[in-house]
Write a structure and sequence with these properties.
The complex is a heterodimer of chains A (about 120) and B (about 110). Chain A is mainly beta and about 120 residues long. Chain A contains no helices and eleven strands. Chain B has about 110 residues and is mostly beta strands. The chains are: A mainly beta (about 120), B mainly beta (about 110).
Amino acid sequence: DTGVSQDPRHKITKRGQNVTFRCDPISEHNRLYWYRQTLGQGPEFLTYFQNEAQLEKSRLLSDRFSAERPKGSFSTLEIQRTEQGDSAMYLCASSPWGGAQETQYFGPGTRLLVL
Amino acid sequence: TQLLEQSPQFLSIQEGENLTVYCNSSSVFSSLQWYRQEPGEGPVLLVTVVTGGEVKKLKRLTFQFGDARKDSSLHITAAQPGDTGLYLCAGATGAGSYQLTFGKGTKLSVIP
């Protein structure tokens, strides 16, 4: 399977704990995105990488959130001191270089539940 | 802030019926994508439309981008139970920003 993969698919944690999610984009896609989706809503943009550079960050990305893409391939999203409001589906997407249509291909998501 | 309004929010129809869902905004988008999402899964791309007035067909699905690139519609002919899912539209503004703005989606149920 050569699509976007995310790990883990599900995560249950207690409030105050730190969690880290991983995203592996489609091979050779240089653009990588993180979105968050809560129940009954469409995905909301969090951040965007072009290669290893983080070029856009949403105001939704509080200082408890940090994303990295150290080698321009896989990316990690860490949430520190989780809160119940962080419970959501975290989606990763990727797109190829020079894709003028801004088409993004999504992974299966990581569903986070904060108790 | 760009907003995409999708209607209807919920739609329940019998197998074989036709339906249209709408995606509207006051903002202009450089492109617009339609996705279908199953429960617990990520959105799966159906189509990207780029040119105002563009019409694209994908088997029984017909997508149209408005002339002014502010709105779009998805028409499904002879709906089947396998069409059940959440249909999301997402717009890209271009101009150096690569984020997509999503609507809340239309939840479609096709009853056998």
